[in-house]
Amino acid sequence: MNARIDTLMVACALVCLMAMAAPASGRQSAHPMDMTDAATPRHHAPHAGHANVAPPPPAAADASHATHDMHATVAPATEARSPDYSDGYGHGSMPGMDMHDDPALGMLLLDRFEYVHARDGGRAIAIDGEAWYGRNFDKLWLKFEGKRADGRLQDLRTEALWSHAVAPFWNTQLGVRHDFGVGPGRTWAAFGIEGTAPYWFETEATLYVGQGGRTAARVALEYEARFTQQLILQPSLEANFYGRDDSQRGVGTGLSDIEAGLRLRYEIRREFAPYIGVVWQQRFGRSRDYARAQGEPADDLQFVAGFRLWF
Amino acid sequence: MKPIHGNPGPQIPVLSRRRFVQGLALGGTAALLGGFAKPSWALAESNKSHALSGTEFKLEVTEMPVDYTGAARIATTINGQLPGPLLRWREGTTVTLHVTNRMHVPTSIHWHGILLPFDMDGVPGISFPGIAPGETFTYRFPVRQSGTYWYHAHSRFQEQTGLYGALVIDPAQGERVRADRDYVVMLNDWTDMDPERIFAVLKKRSDYFNVSHPTVPEFLSDASKLGLAGALRERAMWNRMRMSPRDLVDVGGFAYTYLMNGTTPAGNWTGLFRPGERVQLRFINGSSNSFFDVRIPGLKMSVVAADGQDVEPIAVDEFRIAAAETYDVIIEAQDDRAYTIFAQSIDRSGFARGTLAPRVGMEAEVPPLDPVPMLTMADMMGATGGDEHAMHGMQHDAVSLSRRERVPEGRVRVRQSHDAMHSSEPSSRRYAPGLRPPLPTGEGSMSDAIRAHHASSEFHNPGVDMRVDFPRTNLDDPGAGLRDNGRRVLTYADLRTLGGSLYPEPVTREIELHLDGSMERFIWSFDGVIFSKAKPIHFRYGEHLRVVLCNDTMMNHPIHLHGMWSEVESPGGEFQVRKHTVNVQPAQRVAYRVKADALGRWAYHCHLLYHMEAGMFREVVVA
Q: Residue B223: what are its φ and ψ, rounded to 5°?
């Protein structure tokens, strides 16, 4: 089962990627539906307390999944037993229990806070992070990514999402996105998945539907290669797609830009790590044209230095 | 950082690491109080005479400063001692314990492994409301057993911050085991971190304390030996499953300074002996979240009791002691020299250490830490019934996956590929969730793999990251890190309680529970249901039932049932050993019998404190 969900989630990310190759916005409008459909589990995770009404697991005997399924069960649904051994007994009324096994916790991750030095001499400050607050399976999840250059905010993507656990390594994320920065602000509805794909790829794939039929998609992948327990190389890849031209924001239809990064960080503490890195950025299609018209390079090699922080 | 005694284990590059691991020589309450608050029994030549003994005890729970690493911290102590005083009871008496809470938060003391009325068991919210600040609670109950036990807080993380002590009960008929000297050796894991923060950190980044993640250089080294394809193949399963083969324990030496009788490794707790004497050592793992592999280089240990219950003596070089377990061993040293008691943590991130010596001040060599164990495929997937073909396939895989350790041959079999898995599925192993037929005796025959019965709540559950369909059932596997290490290592298969089962009547019911979790989310549960979402488990008063535990995770879970014995069965269904805490190894199935003869409500949980607090906890109702 886990393997199926992994496949499904990776497929979602691939759908986003493929969508980038397709220029017609009309075609894209269908995708948010596909995405939510796909990302929502066919059977909701059983609420633990009522687990005996959980739907039967599908037999995952498909040979092509078998290696993934080694850890998953092949037990037919009819064999699953009830976890309820209470015979109708409930908990007593004794006060004083202090178990907090589903605590409300919060976390802030500043994944990147960096000084950007472009090959052509351009300089910027970039930020990319997230914060969440919530319990085991449901969290309020905020994301932000932006860049400040030439004394002003160039762009800032902010998202507020309801993150819901649907599988051991995957959450669905539904909410809103608002873009600040140069040009008019844009607001979108967001439908996404977030999680860890097999082989430890941190994966985010989100589709957006904005005012007036605007659509967008964003896929981000991260990996961590440890050289020592503290020296960690983090390759990353991010791609943005837009369903329609937005000349005021400088984005064009189709695959708008790809950013590939390689950051080497040293975890002085687990929570704090300075890093250096290189980032290669490439704009495509109309986005490329808009950039050129603004006097910005269509592709850019940047050197970055900054720090990563969480608590 | 300089390795400790040629430590080949993880290199933890923290400036003060050495002091952190070894601790201050005069650490603990002594460091701040001039040694007066040091538990005298822990320092004494023989701690027997310094115990609090009798039938009436006054215990005060207070917070006080301690210093084990050069950083002062507040500990939770009993009568100003850490560990708390050794309590010595006598079987057949009735003890009265007045426990006064001198803190600003509620507290409790649970008498671990003791048979008593449920309202004396000391679990807030189940047996009593806890002890409010300023209040005194009086425990009073008859002592119906003898042996080595311990006591600890059952309130939040107070056990982690020092609220624990040893409990030794003298048999009514006099000691069965003759010994010239008698020492308690209590092992603990002290942390300078706030345990609430440890818990929160684990929830955010569960691998925070793991300092032996596989690295790129290791991969390259493997690739040069095995070829690129070989190195990739070796990692494929782990990477697909997003599991680490070095995920042995959640919190290790990164946060812990391991203590022996409240003394740091540098402090070197010392027990004296005269050559030729028989010395009894009562090992208690009073840690919150640690497993120790214990040995005394140069000496055989004769294990004579487990969890307070006498067993047929078995001579071993080493044993693994899970959190909350106790083992009594007898040693006989003939030579006039010192011996090191070496207790390394399961992840080899640190150790507790003490010395047995003819004279104070003597020391023996402290051995290096063993290499960090790698979990094997058997730890991930258990056994599987299958044909010879599958068996051979497994061996190939298992060997390639764990060059350092070989799974005991002919005992544990692992599915090697999907075709093996499907072809080897035994069709006849589907038992109704009531009773299962007795297992064939002679563990490890090819056709007797037992199929686990998963609960419906384990499916479609983001808190369950893995399930084992065919857990292994053998008890003779010492576990990752101890297999084939050249030493005779104790396993549950070696333990045979003297006198056999206390309950001759047949087992009339069987319930199966699975130990589940999500490493990533740090959720731990029975059957995928955390405590706050679970209903109690009902044992019918008077029934003799079998509890089957299947571990679907890759970690060990020491499972403790309050108030009643857990009589562990051999794979063949015979009585094996009576315990209060049963460690279930990764992907293992363990069955034990419970005589539900103790009315009331009882706690039932994993004794790794952070697993318990994360949900691996149930209430048992005997009614």
A: -65, -35
Q: What angle do CA B35, B41, B45 make, to 5 degrees?
A: 95
- In B176-215, alpha helices (H): 195-204
Rounded CA-CA distance B415/B346 in Å is 26
Residue among B543, B535, B550 at smallest CA distance from B509? B543
Peptide bond just before B83 cis, omega within 30 deg: yes
Q: Does A66 touch chain B (CB under 8 A)?
A: yes
Mean pLDDT along residues B589-609: 98
Tokens linked to B393: 């396939």
Q: Is the pLDDT of residue A74 over 70?
A: no
By Cβ distance, the residue of B240, B425, B453 closest to A198 is: B240
How many Å apart are CA B336 and CA B518, to the nearest integer? 51
Query: Token pair for residue B287?
Result: 């840690």
Tell me if B568 sits within 8 A of B577, measured CB to CB: yes
- Reported residue count of chain B is 623
Strand, coil or helix: B241: helix
pLDDT per residue as tens digits for the range B198-227: 999 999 999 999 989 999 999 999 999 999
Q: Residue B607: what pLDDT?
A: 98
Q: How far apart are alpha carbons B554 and B148 in whole angstroms?
A: 30
Over residues B488-543, the pLDDT tens digits come to 999 999 999 999 999 999 999 999 999 999 999 999 999 999 999 999 999 999 99
pLDDT confidence of A19, banded at 50, 70, 90? Answer: low
Q: Distance (Å) from the C-alpha of residue B202 to the closest C-alpha of chain A?
A: 11
Give bridge partners of residue B524 from the DSSP assignment: B517
What's the N-to-C CA distance of chain B in angstroms? 57
Query: What confidence tens digit (pLDDT) does each residue in B360-378 have?
Result: 999 999 999 999 999 988 8
Q: Characterize the bridge pairing of strands B94-101 and B56-67.
A: parallel
User: Do residues B356 and B331 make contact, with C-beta atoms less than 8 angstroms apart?
Assistant: yes
| Cα gap A82→B609, rounded to integer Å | 27
Helix (H, G, I), strand (E, B) or coil at B388: helix
Interface of A with B in 87-146 (CB under 8 A): 87-92, 94-103, 105, 107, 136-137
B204 to A107: CB separation less than 8 angstroms, yes or no? yes
How many residues can be counted in chain A?
Answer: 311
Provide the shortest C-alpha distance from residue A54 to chain B (in Å). Answer: 6
**In this structure, are residues A281 and A257 in contact, taking their beta carbons and an 8 Å threshold?**
yes
d(C-alpha B368, C-alpha B356), whole Å: 18
Between A50-64, B100-114, B371-385, the lowest mean confidence (pLDDT) is in A50-64
Q: Which of A72, A224, A171, A170 is nearest to B237 (CA)?
A: A72
Strand partners, B354: B269, B341
The alpha-helical segments, DSSP class H, found in B13-169 are 17-22, 29-33, 40-43
| B495-498 long-range contacts, CB within 8 A, separation 24+ | B495/B303, B495/B306, B495/B311, B495/B314, B495/B568, B495/B576, B495/B577, B496/B311, B496/B312, B496/B576, B496/B577, B497/B306, B497/B309, B497/B310, B497/B311, B497/B567, B497/B575, B497/B576, B497/B577, B497/B578, B498/B309, B498/B310, B498/B311, B498/B312
With CA atoms as reference, the chain A residue closest to B422 would be A61
Distance, in Å, from the CA atom of B3 to the CA atom of B13, rounded to the nearest integer, reads 10
CB B285 within 8 A of CB B384: no
Quickly list DSSP for B113-150: T----GGGS--BTTTB--B-TT-EEEEEEE----EEEE
CA A265 → CA A150, A200, A236, B245, B282, distances in Å?
Answer: 27, 18, 13, 24, 47
Contact residues for B316 (Cβ-Cβ < 8 A; gap 6+): B300, B301, B302, B303, B488, B489, B490, B494
Please tell me which residue, B433 or A168, carries the higher pLDDT value: A168
